[in-house]
Design brief:
Blueprint lengths: L3 H7 L5 E4 L12 E2 L1 H17 L7 E6 L4 H11 L3 E6 L4 H11 L3 E4 L1 H9 L10 E4 L8 E2 L19 E6 L9 E5 H12 L13 E5 L5 H13 L3 E5 L4 H10 L4 E4 L1 H7 L15 E4 L6 H10 L6 E8 L3 E8 L1 H5 L6 E5 L4 E6 L12 E8 L5 E2 L3 H6 L1 E2 L2 E10 L5 E6 L9 H11 L3 E9 L2 E9 L6 H7 L10 E3 L14 H9 L12
Parallel strand pairs: 1-11, 3-4, 3-5, 5-6, 6-7, 10-11, 10-12, 12-13, 13-14, 24-25
Antiparallel strand pairs: 1-2, 8-9, 9-19, 14-15, 15-16, 16-22, 17-18, 18-21, 20-21, 21-22, 23-24
Amino acid sequence: MGVLFDECAARRTATTVHLDRPFDIAPDGGTEYGAVALAGLVRDAAGWLSAAGAGRGDRVAILKDNHWDYDLLACAAARVGAVPAQLSAQLSPDALAILLERLAPAVLMTTAGQLERCRAAGTDLTSFARVTVTSDVAVPGAVHLDQVRGGRVPAPQRRGEDEPLVIDHTSGTTGVPKLVVHSTRTIIGELARFEARRVPKIGVRGDDVVATASSYAHGRTFCWTAVVMSMAPREVVILTGQDPNRADPVLRAHPPTIMEGLPASYVRFRPLTERLDNPFRRVRLYISTYDAVHPPTIRAYLTASRQRNPLWMDGWGQTETGPLTFRFHTRRSLARRQAAHDVGRPIPVKTRLRLVDPDTFRPVRPGQPGLVLARTAARCLDYLGESQRWSDKQVGGWWITGDLGVRRWDGSVRLLDREVDRTPDGSCLEIEDVLEDRLPEALECVLLAEPGKPPLPVIITADGTLSPAAWRRACRRLPQMQEPVSLRWDDVPRTGTAKVRRMDLREQLTGSTATCGTGRWT
């Protein structure tokens, strides 16, 4: 990864990258880049990190606003032989302090804004790194980027296939995220190389315009960067926010043929599907990562495409494993009601799944609920600073995902709930699917299980209101629930990938963090 962009430049890759705003590390660099310019920026960044003291075997922590230059900085760190650790700016100061203490980075690459945010909460991030570099403005206790510019760019340092290459963190929906250590073999050899195949219908072509709206502090985009640059589409579009009005002009100027996004990005961009000459008219393939998207949203995007047979591809997996299953939706399949958490079948050749009783670990029959175990060569090396926790999530060579599900007779899997979030009566995820189908005004529906009580429904709408009549219609013939709470999108605590932090939301609304599950495998 340290020389990825150099190799693209040497091959004269003709891909043009369009940004919705300039890179934070190159604010005067504009919003259009080719392979040569990207390679130059990565080399320059490697020089900055080297001048700041990062070298072979060191860790470089990256904490900044959401943008693709997270991955450029990670490539620069890999170029000098260091191990990049990408930390989301959505993490709380307390969580950042814990993760940085485990990382003990040689260099922390961040911004004055992030330092000030954490200092206001009583956390001095500069105390965790040998050197802290800010890319925006100078602050006491940190080195400004201008002070490390212009130094010698060191020769690339290659690391072994099984040495740590990058450290990413989990979403953190149930507490402090885990630091996930991946090697070149796991994240590049097993994940990126498998994806970088010109498979008909779903492979990237030379005439494609590939757009992504993601969280660039997470492992998916590091892998995605390797794939998309090696596949050399005609154009790449980078979206950094979830405001549909800011995304619309960029998407209209460069209408994508492949669109990938966070589930939250698809939810927030959905109004664009209803506009005249909508920006998704040329999309032949939609890709959803991190979590499933509910059927009403998928239908809206498939309808918005003017291609004859557009596809929607869901991938289910974890930061620790990469994708484990996939499934496809078409307009015809969405005409039949499908649950968003029917996650499909294991990826052929790459992954295997087993469902077991969570108490005895004995296999369960198809149709019976069980704890989902996975086996894949892409499994991470460790949890940094929590090796015992990593070991506790393995049994006989299988990885304990912490999800409960049901295997069908055809081999496909339907997820029920995270074990920690489960409800004794039915499945929260399935009820959320039904509610989203019945409440067109809902941006998102979340069901929170509480011990000894019916689940608490949280309905997220644009204005934070929900009519009693709409709720009565929506909950007809569903299991008993408490009276709903309606909130706006920004009222809900979220992770860097915009997943709902259910434990925090439960505490916010009920004053308790108690769940029906054990939380043993979070």
